[in-house]
Amino acid sequence: MTDLVPHRENLNGIKRIVRDDELCFGDVVGVHRMRGLYDHYGIYTGNGGMIHYADPSGDFGTNIVIHRTTIDTFKEDSEYLFVIDFDKFIRKNKVNIFDIITPLGINVSKLLIALLGNSNYRIYSPEETVRRAESRLGERDYNIATNNCEHFAIWCKTGVSESTQVENFLQKIREIRIR
Fold first, then answer.
1. Are 85 and 13 in contact (CB under 8 A)?
2. Helix pair 149-158, 86-93: axis angle to 10 deg
C-alpha cells in the first residue's frame, strides 16, 4: 500500500490516506467504494475493530444497523483507507464572505451559519468518539439523505451530524436546475 494514488477528492487535504497500521483509536475512517462513486465511513476502535452504519453483508441491504466489524471487513475490496483531518475539516467548514455571496445571489443557509457562528462543532477525544459510537450500537434509523454512515461518523467526532457527500450531491442538483 505504499504507492497509492489519491482519489481526486483527497486533494482538498481533509482526507489523508493511511495504512491499516497507521490508524489511531477514535479515527474517522473512510474508504472509496465503486471506484469513488461514494465513500463509506466508520470509527476505528483499536485492535483492528470498526463501528459503522451498514448492513452486515455489505454497505446496503435490508438490515442496515450500527454494528462492530473488523477493519478487513470494513475495507471490503477498497484499495486503501483514509482518515479525516479534523483541524482542516473544521477550518474548511467555517464560512467566508465568498461562500455567502455567490453569482446567483445570497446563500441563505451559509449566511445563517455565519451569523449564528459555527460553534456546534467540537472535537471529541478519541475515547469520547468511540464511546459516542458505542452508544448508538444497534441503531436502525438509517436514511441515505439524513442519517447515513458519514452523518454517524462525523457526529461521533464533532457532535454535528452532516454528510459532505449529501451536500455535494444536493449542490450539483441545484446547479443542474439553475441551468
1. yes
2. 100
Q: What is the pLDDT of residues 4-42, one digit of tens each?
A: 334 434 434 678 899 999 999 999 999 998 877 889 999
- Strand 15-18's sheet: what is its strand order? 15-18, 81-84, 28-33, 38-46, 49-54, 65-70
Q: Cell 476502535 sits at which residue?
A: 45
Cα dihedral 89, 94, 100, 102 sign: negative
Residues in contact with 67: Cβ distance below 8 Å, sequence separation at least 6, in sequence order: 51, 52, 54, 56, 137, 138
pTM as predicted: 0.77
114-123: burial string, b at 16+ Cβ within 10 Å, e else: beeeeeebee
Q: How many CB atoms lie within 10 A of CB 130?
A: 21
What domains appear along the chain, each with residue ranges and CATH number? 11-173 (3.90.1720.10)
- In the three-class reduction of DSSP (H, G, I as helix; E, B as strand; rest coil), residue 37 is classed as coil
pLDDT digits (tens, 9 = 90+) for 75-112: 998 888 999 887 766 666 555 555 556 655 665 555 55
Question: How far is the C-alpha of 36 from the C-alpha of 23, rounded, in Å?
Answer: 21
CB 150 within 8 A of CB 127: no
